[in-house]
Amino acid sequence: MTPILQVENLGKHFQMHHLGQRLHAFEGISFALHAGEFLLLRGPNGVGKSTLLRTLYRSYLPRAGHIWYHTSEGRIDLAVAADVDIALLRRREIGFVTQFLIARPRVAAEDIVAEPLRRAGIPAVDAIEESRRWLAEFGVKRDLWRAYPTTFSGGEQQKVNLARALILPQRLLLLDEPTASLDAGARAALIRRLADLKAAGVAMIGVFHHPGDVAGMIDREIELIAQEEPADVAV
Amino acid sequence: MTAALALLAPHLMTTPPLLTLQGVSRRYGDVVALEDVSAAVYPGEVLGIVGESGSGKSTLLRMMNLEDTPDAGDYRLALPDLPGNLFVLDRFARRMLCATRIGIVYQNPHLGLLMKHTSSGNVAERLLIAGERSFAALRGRARDALEASEFPLNRMDARPFELSGGMQQRVQLAKAIALEPALLLLDEPTTGLDVSVQALVLDTLKRLQRDRAITMVIVSHDLGVIRTMADRVIVMRRGRVVEQGLADQIFQDPQHDYTQQLVHAKL
Fold this sequence. Notes:
heterodimer, A: 235 residues, alpha/beta, Rossmann fold, five-stranded parallel beta sheet, 6 helices, 26% strand, B: 267 residues, six-stranded mixed beta sheet, three-stranded antiparallel beta sheet, 10 helices, 38% helix, globular
C-alpha cells in the first residue's frame, strides 16, 4: 500500500538576520505514514516536535529534504509545492489542530465551527446543525452557541477550536498538544473523535504532553533527540 | 549552507489566476515606485500586500485599479470580453471596466466619495455609470449594497461628511460592491479608525468575503489587519517584492531580513 506521507531527510533551521545567526531545529528526519495510522512524536521540551509539525504544514519553510504527500492525482512534495497548492490542500485534506483559537470579533461560536463545512460547499442549515452537534459533543453549553468566543474562557475557546478543527474529516491531521488544559469531558470527546477519524482512515501525527491520553491509538513513535547544534554560522 | 528551497509552479490548483501582473515597473522622475513586480491572485483568494511607507504597495494597488500606466508591464484579468494587456485600454474603457468589474476602498474617503451627496446617491452613482436608469432600481440596489456593508439604513440619506470614519468606509464599501465586482481592492481600509471600529469593519469584510467569495487585494502597513484578512502575502520594499508566501508562513517564519524586521517590530 502506498503511504499517504513519506518524509525524507527533512531539515529545518531558522536564519535570524538581525543576530547574524542560524537556529538549528532538526535534520535528517525520515518516516512514512499510511492511511489510518497514528504517529506519536516524542522528546523533551524544545527538541522541535511542534516545529516539525509546523514544517509539515508549511507554516515553517523546510530547508532540506522532501515531504511526499500522495493525492488522488499523484504525489506532490509539500516541501516545495506552490503556496496556492498548499492552501488548497489545507482547505480539503490536511488539518492542523492546536490549543489556540483565533477568535474573531462578532462571529458566533456555531459559525466559527461551521466555517470549514461552509467552505466545502455544505449548505448553511446543514453546516450549523452539524456545528451544534459538535459543540454539544465537546461540552460547550447551549447558551454559548450564539455567543462570540472572544469573551470565552481559555478552556471554552479551546473546545470551540477543536470542534472547528475536527468537524470536516481530513486525510492527514497534525495535532499539536490538543489535550493540554482540557477538562475531562472534553478530553474524552476529543479522544472519541480522533478514534473515529482514525478508524475512518485519517492519518495522524501528534504531539501530546500526556501520551497516555491516546495510548490505545498509537501505531508508531518517533523520538526526537537534541542534536548537536552546528556552531553558529555567520549569515 | 542551504538557501531556502525554491518553490514549484502550482500543480493541484488548476483554476487560472483571476489577476496576473507581469514585470510591472514605474518611475516618477528619479524615484523608482515599482521595479519588475509580478503577482497573481486566484479566484476567491485574499492577497495581502505589506511594506512600509514608500514601498510601492499603494502604487501597485492603483495599477490594479488602472489609475496609472506603468513604464513596462502586463496586467490581465481572466474575465470575458477583455483584451490581453489591460494597460493598453483607453481612459473610457478603463473607467467602464473599473466601474463594473473592480471595486476599491481608499483609506481617505474623500478619494472614493462625493462628500456632499447622500450616501445612497454615492452608491447609486456607480450603478448609473453601469447604465441603470430606473430610480426605484437604483435606490433598491443602493440599499442592498449598504445593507451588505452593514451600514445603518436609517442613515442612507445622510451625507458622508456628516458620518463617522467607520461609516464613511462602509459607504465606500457599499459603492465598491454594488455591481458585484470580480475584484475588490482595499487600500488601508481601516487605517485611522478606532481599534474597535476597525475590528467591526474587518469583520464586515470577512463576512462579505465568506458569503460572496470575492477576490480581494488588501494593502496595509498594519500587519494585524493583513494577518486577519489575507491567505497569502506579498512583502514590498523600495518598489520590489522581497518575499511572498502563505500568510502564516510570512508571520511565523519570515525569510527575508526586511520581513523579519517588520514582523518583529509588530507590537
